């Protein structure tokens, strides 16, 4: 079964079939050959996404898009700048803080990187930062969003691992202070 699956996948790849279709076609053929009814595959696919917690993900995406379109990221940058902008290297700290604020609201690391980066990369370049350093700083500050609740990856992990989303959020928030809430 495994040999058939990977053999078909490699054959489809060599024929130039796009990867998504190669994976799907080889999987469907291997399941059909092993006698699995294809209706079971459809039922399992829909059962896998039948989760109340997954409803939150489109709302986080919408919130991140609305914030990016509404120029909220610029206001978050101004707020972070008022807190730590006076320090030496303060613009770097502002970048990280603005990324943290935006990630805590949007729940998405990619949205954070795009929204904060669009306003801070030009400013970092203007202040004399190397463009590669500015881009890497913004990319790194966007990844903080994964560990700051509410986070889309935390929700997906909680659904897959069948864990409580609220406990995961609480632990994600409190681990920085070494608290353990179970």
TrEMBL record:
One of its GO terms (cellular component) is plasma membrane. It is a multi-pass membrane protein. Keywords: Cell inner membrane, Cell membrane, Membrane, Transmembrane, Transmembrane helix, Transport. PANTHER family: SIALIC ACID TRAP TRANSPORTER PERMEASE PROTEIN SIAT, SIALIC ACID TRAP TRANSPORTER PERMEASE PROTEIN SIAT-RELATED. GO terms for molecular function: transmembrane transporter activity. Part of the tripartite ATP-independent periplasmic (TRAP) transport system. Residues 6-175 form the TRAP C4-dicarboxylate transport system permease DctM subunit domain. The chain crosses the membrane at residues 46-68, 89-117, 137-160. It is found in: Cell inner membrane. Pfam families: DctM. This is TRAP C4-dicarboxylate transport system permease DctM subunit domain-containing protein. The keyword Cell membrane applies.
């Amino acid at each position: 079964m495994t040999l058939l699956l990977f053999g078909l996948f490699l054959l489809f790849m060599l024929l130039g079939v796009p990867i998504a279709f190669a994976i799907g076609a080889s999987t469907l053929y291997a399941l059909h050959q092993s006698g699995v009814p294809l209706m079971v595959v459809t039922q399992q696919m829909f059962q896998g996404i039948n989760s109340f917690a997954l409803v939150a993900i489109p709302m986080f995406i919408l919130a991140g898009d609305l914030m990016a379109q509404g120029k909220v990221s610029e206001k978050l940058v101004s707020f972070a700048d008022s807190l730590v902008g006076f320090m030496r290297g303060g613009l770097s700290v502002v970048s990280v803080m603005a990324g943290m604020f935006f990630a805590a609201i949007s729940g998405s690391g990619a949205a954070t990187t795009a929204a904060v980066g669009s306003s801070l990369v030009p400013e970092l370049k203007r202040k004399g930062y190397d463009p590669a350093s500015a881009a890497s700083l913004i990319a790194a500050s966007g990844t903080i969003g994964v560990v700051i609740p509410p986070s889309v990856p935390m929700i997906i992990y909680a659904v897959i691992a069948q864990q409580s989303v609220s406990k995961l959020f609480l632990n994600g928030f409190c681990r920085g202070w070494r608290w353990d809430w179970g």
